[in-house]
Fold:
Amino acid sequence: MSAMRIHGRCAAPGFALGPIHRVVARRGSYQPSGSPKTEAARLAAAIASALATLEASMGEANGEARDMLGFQVVMLADAALAERAFHAIEAGDRADQAWATALDQEIAGYLDSTEEYFRARASDLRDIKARVSDCLTGASQQAIPRGAVVVADDLPPSQFLATDWTDSALLLRSGSPTSHVAILARARGVPMVVGLNGDLAAGRFAAVDAAAGAVIIDPSPEERQLFAVRRQAEVEARRDVALRVNEPALTANGERISVLLNISDPRELEALDPATCDGIGLVRTELLFEGRSLPDEERQLAVYRRIAEWAGSLPTTIRTLDAGGDKPIPGLTPEGESNPFLGLRGVRLTLAHPQVFRTQLRALARAAAHGAIEVMIPMIAVPRELNAVRKLMDEVVLELEREGKQHRRPPLGMMVEVPSAAIAIDRFDADFYSIGSNDLVQYVVAAGRDIAAVADLAKADEEAVLRLIVNVVDHGVRTSRKVSLCGDAGGDPAIIPALLICGVRQLSMSPALVASAKAAIAAFRMTSRD
Amino acid sequence: MNEMGQAMLINAVGLHARPSVKLTQAAKTFAASIEFALSPDGPWTDAKSPVKVMRVKASKGATLYFRSEGADAGAAVRALVDLVNRKFDEDEPA
Structure:
């Protein structure tokens, strides 16, 4: 029997060979008993079990996450929550339907509120609803075993972060190389392929060559051997490159290029040596904490400080909360937007929640006293957004001064990822610019980064995109402002030459891509652009 | 023993999640039954049930009317009125 080969698109390079582990969507089935007494007992047991799980996860959480979980515990422990469901069961309803209907009614009550505070609690109620429903139907988020080839339709970032990916690979039917999980996979060196349209569930074993987007289901002994040879060659080639990772990045004609890191989680830094890079070009704060909302000022301060201290005197660019789009935060980002990528995201969202924004700016200004922190604002589309942020920063710095708290006003830069900013960059008075190529590309070519069928249109070396990059770089040179690029293109050896030709001299990338990016830079010989 | 009392919600967010939880926790420390309403004639809500308290969605500026029945009713009403007046001990920026 010949093995089946399936092709998808590479989201993170690497090799893996292991048993297939399917992650089933959180959906189970329910067989009603027909007896109201049994249905009631089942619902009571499901609530008790969900409550126990919630209490256990509350013990591990802290800050705002702990508050949120605590609220869910208190609500679920209150008999009033399930009262309507038990009445419906007495009247002959099934436990699963009675629970869903009762909670939907409760949720509708919150959504009806004219106040955002109350509407936002609907997401907690939805979470409570799902927890108990999962206990009733036996559905749950299974733990993912080590060393497996993990297959799923899609995987939430929270589950990715909760998994040990040693010797594993991730295969998704949907998703895109620029999705959030893909960014995490590249950062952690987890091989990942997306857009796979074969019957992945058919086999027991899979060999994955993620760089080629290739998956072999149930490979024959010969295929396994070939695979092992290729993998070995790749590992050795990488080791050669890795040996040079501590050397500064120089082009073939000796021009120095700054290589910066993109990170999402301070834990990524533990295994890294600051000598491999010239600083941190992007700290994503939305994924920094695994809780359900932004933590308080002290907790943020501790995390930002830890990152800045790791970097020492190297510049550390921290981006303010960039939620919305494909990165929802329950209770903060709006639900049901018809097109979230054109909606309330990035700086639009933080300006709409000044209390959340101020807390983050305060923590950043305080952390800036301990390192070379620079603050970067995402999704700036018009100059007045930048001005509004600067005003908030003024207020926050004044506040800290009055309170006598140690702080330093950090430079305030902006992401250039909306075409309006890239085109009229001279109208934006930022202290520095960082080109967010992922969003810039998708907005310029009108191809969604989460839609595998059009993802091929979304290339950073498209002429229109490169012209905008040149425009931003030239403005930076004229006005002596720093310009870097922090999208996926910055770490892509195939795109790096085009970026260098455009005049980009600072590239920010996932730590896992530094070695190959330095190799691509070293192989490049600059000729004059003019 | 029957007791009544009232207090205006002056904390920034009204009877939001954390204040609601604090209110119910305080109410549960008393044996007396405690109810509250947004108007002196009701409808009355059990102050010991977080689910029911949240359903009221009382916002800043609303007046909470308390009524309590039981041996420690007086102390219960005083404690809850005091909690509301203390802004539920939440530190808020001025």
User: Anything to note?
Assistant: Chain A touches chain B through 18 residues (CB under 8 Å). Chain A has three domains: 4-24+142-240, 36-137, 244-522.
